[in-house]
Design a protein that fits this description.
The chain is α/β, with parallel strands linked by helices. Helix content is 59%, strand content 7%. It folds into 2 domains: 262 residues, no CATH class; 168 residues, TPP-binding domain (Rossmann fold).
Length: 454
């Protein structure tokens, strides 16, 4: 068997592992195995590529493997669940940076065809936008930057001028590939455009941005594959790019928004609805909450980012176990954009070993809520805001939400009456059937669990 055939067979195996791994990521029950399959496929691809063409000796490959594995293991163990969205944003940015560097290095190869020069430009353009866009997303998610949309007069005109300047520089580079100034112009303008593309997006739209940047990183890798004439990199990048676009589309539908509306509407620039929330807040103690839970026959938990902040997922699962032992039907309602990245709540509950059959999607749980004794909202806000159904002046209007207000009783666990990530007030908090359980969610639920044990 010659070397070229062995390389191609290895690439086929890697591609198969990518496809099966991606398919398994579609279900919480198989997601971990899918992630493992995809990782093995990428390991095979990297090792075969670096060693077969004599790019690096085995010793360097092993050293790189050890360094990368150490960094990955450290990040996996040390990054809190609340920091997962920021970490994903940075990973997207690293992918874009890698593709950008590939494009820059490829310019030192003499005699590139026009097609290769075009792919170099695409690699640098998409990689640059992904890099700086992901950094801005990281800053917004970590609240190191303002989480609201940042907009200014003439912003669309400025962005349009940026696009035209990028196109002009790209055309000039293809005509004069030996002149580096056009390449550096594309690089600088791409980095700036990444910033300008993400700063006008904020609030509840950030999970969509994460999915979109993930798609960008895949498209950048695909362009880099054309630059390097590597079929597997083209396949892998296309898979990531396509899956990211599909996920972005799914999330946009879940919010009843178009992608153009998400990108250009400036969600978060307006943080108040036209209708002022009025009413009396009715607080409840953990002891009284226990008495209602103990008598409930059906309970639906609605997790949100606040549950991740409180690290309450494990005590919530323990409470769910006690409720089931008490003869109660328990479910977890999952909104597609709950948290700050796609699938955030699924990952959080999987970490706490919540059975997958208890996780119910929004469209399936909503018809059941009118017959539910108790809905327990833990750190969620925008995804349960009834203003999305009733207040045409609300920025959330038209976004499908989990209709917890239709349950017989609603508990909302929050530290305060503060609004959610979008900055929109929530009339659920003053609803007639709502009781506010103030305080740290983990402590409150732990107290209720203690009453069940007692």
């Amino acid at each position: 068997m010659n070397t070229e055939l062995l390389i191609n067979l290895s690439y086929i195996v890697s591609a198969i592992l990518f496809v099966f791994g991606l398919k398994m990521l579609g279900s919480p029950a198989t997601a971990r195995r899918g992630n493992l399959f995809s990782s093995i496929g990428m390991l095979i691809a990297i090792v075969v590529t670096l060693t077969s063409k004599g790019l690096l000796p085995w010793e360097n490959v092993i050293i790189g493997f050890i360094i990368g594995s150490t960094i990955g293991a450290f990040a996996a163990r040390k990054v809190e669940m609340t920091g997962m969205p920021e970490m994903v944003a940075l990973f997207n940015g690293f992918g874009g940076a890698a593709s950008l560097l590939v494009g820059m290095v490829a310019t030192y190869t003499t005699g590139n065809s026009t097609f290769v020069n075009i792919t170099i430009i695409l690699s640098i353009l998409i990689g640059g936008v992904t890099l700086t866009g992901s950094i801005i997303a990281w800053g917004k998610l970590s609240e190191r930057l303002p989480t609201k949309a940042i907009m200014f007069s003439g912003q669309q005109i400025f962005n349009g001028a940026l696009v035209l300047a990028i196109l002009a520089s790209a055309v000039m580079f293809c005509q004069e590939p030996t002149n580096p100034q056009w390449l550096y112009a594309v690089l600088g303008l791409s980095l700036l455009f990444g910033v300008m593309a993400v700063i006008p997006i904020g609030g509840a739209d950030m999970p969509v941005v994460i999915a979109l940047l993930n798609s960008y990183s895949g498209l950048a890798a695909c362009a880099a594959g054309f630059v390097l004439d590597n079929n597997l990199l083209i396949v892998a990048g296309a898979l990531v790019g396509a899956s990211g676009i599909i996920l972005t589309n799914i999330m946009c539908k879940a919010m009843n928004r178009s992608l153009s509306n998400v990108l250009f509407s400036g969600f978060g620039a307006v943080t108040t609805s036209s209708t002022k929330v009025e009413g009396e807040v009715k607080p409840i103690s953990a002891d009284d909450a226990y008495l209602i839970m103990e008598a409930a026959q059906s309970v639906v938990f609605v997790p949100g980012y606040g549950m991740a902040v409180a690290q309450a997922q494990h005590v919530v699962r323990e409470l769910a176990d006690h409720l089931e032992d008490n003869g109660c039907d328990v479910k977890f309602a999952i909104h597609p954009v709950a948290g700050r990245m796609p699938g955030h709540m699924n990952v959080l509950l999987a970490e706490a070993s919540v059975p997958y059959d208890q996780l119910v999607e929004m469209d399936d749980i909503n018809p059941q809520l009118p017959n539910t004794d108790l809905a327990v909202v833990i750190g969620a806000n925008d995804v349960v805001n009834p203003a999305a159904n009733k207040d045409k002046g609300s920025p959330l209007y038209g976004m499908p939400v989990i209709n917890v207000d239709e349950a017989r009783t609603v508990f909302v666990l929050k530290r305060s009456m503060g609004s959610g990530f979008s900055g929109v007030d929530n009339p659920l908090f003053v609803g007639d059937n709502t009781r506010m359980l103030f305080g740290d969610a983990k402590e409150s639920i732990s107290h209720i669990v203690g009453e069940f044990k007692g």
